[in-house]
Amino acid sequence: MESSAWNEPEHALTVALEVVRAPLGQTLPTLSAVLEGLIPHRAAAKLTGYCAHYPMKTSGAAEVAERITSAELSRLAGVVPVGRPWQGEAVVAGATRQVFAAASAAAGSNGALLVLVDTPAEPLPEAAVRVVQRLWDLVCVHLDHRAADAPPGMAARSRAAASERARVIAELGEAQAAVLSGLLGTLRSRNLDDATARRTATDLAVSAMIELRSAADREQGLSEEPADAAFARIAAELDPLVRYGPVQLDLRAPDSARTLPIDTAHAARAATRAVVLAMLEQAELSRIHVGWQIDDDILRVTVRDDGPGSLASEALTVHRVTDRLKALGGRLVLDAVPGWGTTVTCTVPLGPVTAPAAHPLAALGTRELQVLDHLVRGHRNRAIAEDLHISESTVKFHVANILDKLDVDTRGEAAALARSAGDIAAA
Fold first, then answer.
1. How many CB atoms within 10 Å of residue 163?
2. What string of DSSP letters covers 378-402?
3. Could you tell me which Gene3D superfamilies the record lists for this protein (predicted)?
4. pLDDT for the residue numbered 13
5. Residue where a domain terminates, one of 123, 148, 173
6. CA pair distance 343, 305, nearest whole angstrom
7. Enclosing H/E stretch for 70
8. N or C: which end of the chain has fewer CB within 10 A?
């Protein structure tokens, strides 16, 4: 295993820079490539909550990568301790394989999982294990920042995708629970004589129900974040901005334990950070108050200062705060009173939002959006097939569906519609 180069700080920093500079859609392939010399593997997979549209992504040998499922990764996530890499055998890509897995310890990552598949069976050097863990933590911090600055169109689609996935998971859980409950009732019947069979089957059914619930909880952890945890993260980000300055920061955390959709949490933190930064640019400022409050199905973010009261909405344009809030059905109101200060109020609905359903690309499925992303880049069918590990005939099938659903006649028209709708690159 060629790992000696990793002992050089310059090499490690070069590798880290290469990974974080990669386009979002190439983050995993790039990470897999740079780790190949440290831990040989045939495929790599990640399961994260940074993009609700594409929580799972795979890379590597098609015969392995294409068969990896989110259910397999979710089960593996249940046994890999956060911040403590794990090596062993697990069912991945439909077979028992040797894998290496790391769950990120980075703040806000919710234990995002990296899995390297078909790795060496012998124990890996401790130094290599530490390097992979630290590099994966760095990647997760990078993805978190990219998610916080996601284009408005992507935020709307991610919100819709997360809601749909949660609905499907809930329905699946209810259906499976009903089946297993019926199974338990049958096996517990006094008309059955084989007590051992009943006991064994009962234990298996109970275990299946527990595993099903655990999978649902892990999915929820990737798509939601507690309001108090989300606020604690932005509070930690704001502290260095005022720690050694003349401005005092007053913080009021939400008094609700309600969970927020992950895209809402990202948008609320981005809005809070942008407003505070804009206020700090003013002169004659001594205090900024930041508060989050949940009223019914509304998250309300209030940022108030005691400055000159001259802050203009143009100061927030560069951060695209208004656009991001609108994508989630929210709004921003700025109230500046000369001599009394400025108050900025951002509101985001937490319940169902109708706006994402009306998005021009809302009718497209996950694979169709991936193909459309390639059309926007001007790629031909062969290049699309190679990148997505599918056949050219399958690409043609998806393109035909895209044209039909978007009600356009050509690939160019579909690409133009996608550009007008916003960035669709997958994380």
1. 19
2. T--HHHHHHHHT--HHHHHHHHHHH
3. Histidine kinase-like ATPase, C-terminal domain, Winged helix-like DNA-binding domain superfamily/Winged helix DNA-binding domain
4. 80
5. 148
6. 7
7. helix 70-77
8. N
